[in-house]
Design a protein that fits this description.
The chain is α/β, with parallel strands linked by helices and about 375 residues long. It contains 14 helices and ten strands.
Amino acid sequence: MTPAHQVFINDTTLRDGEQSAGVAFSKLEKIDIAQRLDAIGVPELEVGIPAMGKEERETISELASLGLNADLMVWCRMRKDDLQAACGLGIDLIDLSIPVSDQQIYKKLNRDRNWVLREISVMVPMALDLGFRVSIGGEDASRADVDFLKTILEIAEMAGAERFRFADTVGIMDPFTVYDRIKDLRSVSGVAIEIHAHDDIGLATANSLAAVRGGANYVNTTVFGLGERAGNAPLEEITIGLSKFFGINAGIDLQNYNALAKLVEEASGCRVSPLKSLVGERVFSHESGIHVDGLIKDPCNYQAVDPAELGRRHDFVLGKHSGTKGLIHAYAQLGIVLERDAAQRILPEVRRFAEKLKRSPTADELVCFHQTQHCLGA
């Protein structure tokens, strides 16, 4: 089933991504990341928290002055002082965040539900009067009472908010529940719904896509899933997922995405696993003889995503699980025609080499195997 509504990505690498423990982007790094996100076509960027102080506001203001194509959003608590801090920065889109679960309303704020509703009805018009477009950030929405959420959406719509951010703040939802919850909320309100999923049990992407199927209009992402605790829904996974599962073109070109991911990796100090989907160093590498043989015959035999979509290519690696087809192909890349009989003699040496040295042989070592058929390259 393909959703009939439009879906937009709001990337929060520069806000929630930076809230990862130990991550602190410099102003120049934020500018570089923002420009690269804009260059690949991300339509909205959440760029910071004005209430953090003067330096943060100066950075936000400079980002706003760059003339990016993307709409820029700032994050604020639903408080007058936070709202005032966001004024004069050149940003017209604001997320006013407030806890909406009883757990956080009562145990974090020592307030009640009526207080939340009053704050929304007062603060949203105040933000509108200051020239902001308003999204209401429903913190901990995944643990909120459904009927209370419906009341919040009703109050939000009446107050003039254009969007509600459904935040799975502690990452506890499953895709089936997300779909039902978003579909239910969508049926009672004209306010756009944004899904903000955390990956605490590895379901941020699945939950985000389920929300889209249920009617969500916006998806929060970060580059390679950077974010608090286990992170957020990865931009690359959501972009590919929208295309593969729903036929939705998010307008994002991933051809140069690896350079962006490496920039965020360096700026954040958070190393990306070589097995991380789509951006990991080894996710398009193949060693198994059966897989390599199948890929050589037709990439679709073992290809879920064409690496060319991300400006990458398949890489055949020689090792313990290689077969003769992969070995013959590797030598062909070196300009050496390897007959099958010779491949069968060399293959055991390659396997022993990989097991002993825990790596693939280099080109020079392969030439050595070919010349001597017994050199271990050690």
